[in-house]
Structure formats: C-alpha cells, structure tokens
Amino acid sequence: MEAKSSDLKLLGGWFSPFVTRVKIALNIKGLEYENIEEDLNSKSDLLLRSNPVHKKIPVLIHGDKPICESLVIVQYIDEVWSNGPSILPRDAYDRTIARFWGSYIDDKFVVCMKNILMAAGDEEEKKRHLEQLEEEVLVTLEEAFNKCSEGKSFFGGNKVGFIDIAFGSFLPFLRVFEEMNGREILVADKFPELVNWATNFVEDSTVTGTLPEIDKLVLFATALQEKWVAAKVAAK
C-alpha cells in the first residue's frame, strides 16, 4: 500500500521523543506525510477530536482514521505497509520479545527520566532516580542489547528495528539530562555496547533529521521542569 502526503498526517511536536518514534518508522517505510506541529498550550481542535481520551501527541491520521500512542502507531505502520522494510521481527516469538522491551523502556526508562526531571530541588530524590537509571535500567538495557543484537549493530540486528526506535528516540533527552545534571550517564566504560549502538543509531539514514537539537531541547526541558516543579509545590 502506497501513501501520499495527503493520506497521512502526523500531529506532533519537534521536542517529543514519542513523535520521533513515529517519524523514524515512517522514514523506514519511505512514506510521505504532512507534519503538523501542535502547540500544547493551545491544543488544536483536530488533536482534541483525534485523541479525545488522552489529548496527547503523537497522533497519526491515516485518511480519516486517527491512531494514538507512539508504539501502537509504529506497529500500525509496520503492519499496514508490510511491503516495506520490516520494523518488528517476522518471527512471532521475536516480535513478542521486541514488544516486551518496548514496554520496559516506557515503564522503566521513560518513567525514571521523568522522575529525575521532577526531582529538581530535592537532591536526595534526584540522586536516587539517577542511581536507578545508571545501576538498574541502563544495565538491563545493555544486557538486552547483547542478547537481541546477536553481535550486530542494532537491537534489531543489521538495521534499525522496534526496540531501537523505542529507546533511541530518547537519546537526545539523555544528552540533555547529562548537561542539566553535569555528569555523563551513557559512558563507554559502563555501557560499551550501548555507546556503540547510540553512535550507529544517530548516524542511520532513517534517523538523520528526526532528532531535535540538544541546545534547543535543554531550554525546553528546563521550562518543562520548572512547570512540573511548580505544579508539585502547588499540590502540597
């Protein structure tokens, strides 16, 4: 199935790693689409109609059908445009494993990153979440890479796949956290395989141009942190 830019619309934001996931999947399939930047301070009627439950980006609109949630969208793209390069493995068990690690990334890695950002002003809490990220989550993902890659460049083998998209889209935010906290997190002496993988990922042709600029993202993350901290204080 081919898609024209008029058939596919992506409601997103330049800053969102969840949106980046969808952009990479679309690139892998070689699909044209209309990119619509949303203002999250004034959400469009199209976004509110397309995702009435969560009212969040990303949303992929295929014709008149909205699809929500980043990893759900990636799987939809892979299934509908099955004639293009595969994103999920062909084998049923391998697909299940890929989905498991996608869920782990959202449930552990993403949550840990958010907790670090929200812990501003509480050094003990921030230290605890940073330790969890470095000593538990990234250690687990290093081990997962060794098993899933089978000695190749990506979690998906020789090419960017589902786990690579799920995790790699957050690499810019990991860099931002390093800058904001004055410490390197993804370092070669602790995570040699992930460091090599990260280099391969950002240089892949399907990823090039999808990742936001770090300096710009630092400003966004700082403003987001201030907003979350203010809301946290107001709730007390």
UniProtKB/TrEMBL annotation:
Residues 6-85 form the GST N-terminal domain. InterPro entries: Glutathione-S-Trfase_C-like (IPR010987), Glutathione-S-Trfase_C_sf (IPR036282), Glutathione_S-Trfase (IPR040079), Glutathione_S-Trfase_N (IPR004045), GST_C (IPR004046), GST_C_Tau (IPR045074), Omega/Tau-like (IPR045073), Thioredoxin-like_sf (IPR036249). Keywords: Detoxification, Transferase. One of its GO terms (biological process) is glutathione metabolic process. It comes from the Eukaryota. It catalyses: RX + glutathione = an S-substituted glutathione + a halide anion + H(+). Belongs to the GST superfamily. Tau family. This is glutathione transferase. It comes from Arachis hypogaea. The lineage of its organism: Eukaryota, Viridiplantae, Streptophyta, Embryophyta, Tracheophyta.
